[in-house]
Design goal:
Blueprint: H1 17-20, H2 24-27, H3 29-48, H4 61-72, H5 76-89, H6 92-104, H7 108-111, H8 123-160, E1 165-170, E2 173-179, H9 180-200, E3 204-205, H10 215-220, H11 226-236, E4 240-241, H12 252-281, E5 284-286, H13 305-327, H14 338-343, H15 346-366, E6 367-369, H16 371-379, H17 386-395, H18 401-409, H19 416-424, H20 430-437, H21 448-454
Parallel strand pairs: 3-4
Antiparallel strand pairs: 1-2, 5-6
């Protein structure tokens, strides 16, 4: 049976392929092969710039162009060729080395130095650097822009609804009013704080041989400053150099990114559940789409499926990301292979993130504020003014202010007339009475509107 979106075992490559297809360029098996080829080529080019290593001379323009094209233009056919070689070698990195040597036969200068492909490298030198590039490109080119777009969408909604009063709920019960814009601004601030951290995480790599000591390098060329060559090579790729490692780069930066994404996803789960609740309360309605069906038996339904889809995929992502963060920094002694298969799950983990982000964006685009319901909810809960009234009473020294309002409001509804009557009994300055009398649940919002506009 051929692999298609219908036959894929994982929903990441099946049902939700449209949301994740851009990830294939970075975190697929093809992406890994492409980056391995690039790292092998760039390492050889670094060797050619090392004057003490006379066996690999500086490349002429034609050879340099050939190498750059080989590194940058790895297509599906090239990746298939590597996989075919791997059927014989049963070693994925060695298959890349043999593929490059095959290609070098097309260049007279390169065919003479083909044994310097993979020179002094352990497989993990190539792998850790490839995964670092894959993760960096995924973060910078795909995930950060999508998250920033989401934060900007929420910011615009916060500004639009900055002055829309709503009854807050604490413990699921009516609480002091806020505005819808302020609630959205809270999410924007939390997201952007995490995005700053995500952007600042250093993605590290190493190129120091079988156990991290440049053993093979120094046995062949003892007079070369290999740590400096290695650092220069890693930094040329746009990565941060890791100077102290075993055979493997310890993957701490991957754990940092995974933990950071767990926090981002948790914020978005929290937000998804809140919006789901707002839809349930009628604070938001959803635009209908012609032809869509909400229920197989109840024709009236417009379900908040986008936020439910997001919540589910964010949870799946966090399960995988947490395992990646817990597992990858651990290796038995110098090296074991348990990280190899786990690293290949990064695409699945971030695939679920992409599915969730697509669902959230789609869901947000459907939302319409329902001002009538929001205002009606406030107008039905005049007891919310117990807080400001008792606070003003405290200011003017009225004894047992809290207790008196508790007796008036706790566990029972009080209408506008009841609140006004209570205010008229207070022994406080007339100006303070008038100020309280003008207050309504819809105007008792503190500086929520100003905060929402400021985000």
């Amino acid at each position: 049976m051929y692999l298609t979106e219908l036959t894929a075992v994982s929903s990441v490559d099946g049902r939700y392929r449209k949301a994740t297809e851009k990830l294939a360029e970075h975190l697929s098996e093809y992406g890994l092969i492409k980056n391995r080829i690039q790292v092998e080529i760039q390492w050889l080019m670094a060797l050619s710039r090392c004057q003490e290593l006379t066996e690999v001379p500086a490349f002429d323009d034609a050879t340099t162009a050939f190498l750059n094209a080989l590194a940058e233009n790895t297509d599906a056919a090239a990746a298939e060729r590597v996989k075919n070689i791997e059927k014989t070698t049963n070693h994925d990195v060695k298959a890349v080395e043999y593929y490059i040597k095959e290609e070098f036969k097309k260049s007279p200068q390169l065919s003479e130095i083909s044994e310097f492909v993979h020179f002094a490298c352990t497989s993990e030198d190539i792998n850790n650097t490839s995964y670092a590039l894959m993760l960096k490109n995924t973060r910078d080119a795909l995930l950060l822009p999508l998250l920033k777009d989401l934060a900007e969408q929420l910011r615009q909604m916060a500004h639009t609804h900055a002055e829309q009063p709503m009854m807050a709920k604490t413990h699921g019960q009516p609480a002091s009013p806020t505005t819808m814009g302020k609630e959205l601004a809270n999410v924007v601030y939390r997201l952007e704080r995490q995005l700053k951290q995500l952007q600042s995480i250093e993605i590290t790599a190493k190129m120091n041989g079988a156990v991290g000591n440049f053993n093979a390098h120094l046995s062949a060329y003892p007079d070369i400053d290999w740590p400096q060559v290695s650092q220069s090579f890693i930094e040329t790729l746009g990565l941060n150099y890791h100077p102290f490692t075993t055979q493997i780069e310890p993957h701490d930066h991957i754990a940092e990114i995974c933990h950071n994404f767990c926090r981002i996803n948790t914020i978005l789960i929290d937000f998804s559940r809140d919006v789901w609740g707002y839809i349930s309360c009628g604070y938001f309605t959803q635009k209908t789409v012609a032809g869509e069906i909400g229920s197989s038996t109840m024709p009236h339904k417009v379900n908040p499926i986008d936020f439910e889809n997001a919540e589910g995929n964010l949870g799946l992502a966090n399960s995988l990301l947490q395992h990646l963060a817990d597992k990858l920094p651990i290796s038995r002694w110098q090296r074991d292979l348990s990280d190899s298969t786990v690293l290949r799950a990064m695409g699945t983990a971030f695939g679920h993130c992409l599915i969730a982000l697509a669902s959230l964006t789609k869901g947000l685009n459907k939302l319409q504020i329902n001002s009538e319901t929001l205002l009606a909810d406030l107008d039905s809960n005049w007891e919310l003014l117990a807080e400001p009234i008792q606070t003003v009473m405290r200011r003017y020294g009225v004894e047992q202010a809290y207790e008196k309002l508790k007796e008036l409001t706790r566990g029972q509804r009080v209408d506008q007339a009841g609140i006004q009557a209570f205010i008229n009994t207070l022994n406080i300055p007339e100006a303070a009475k008038q100020q309280l009398a003008q207050l309504t649940p819809a105007t008792y919002i503190g500086n929520a509107a100003e905060q929402a506009k400021r985000i």
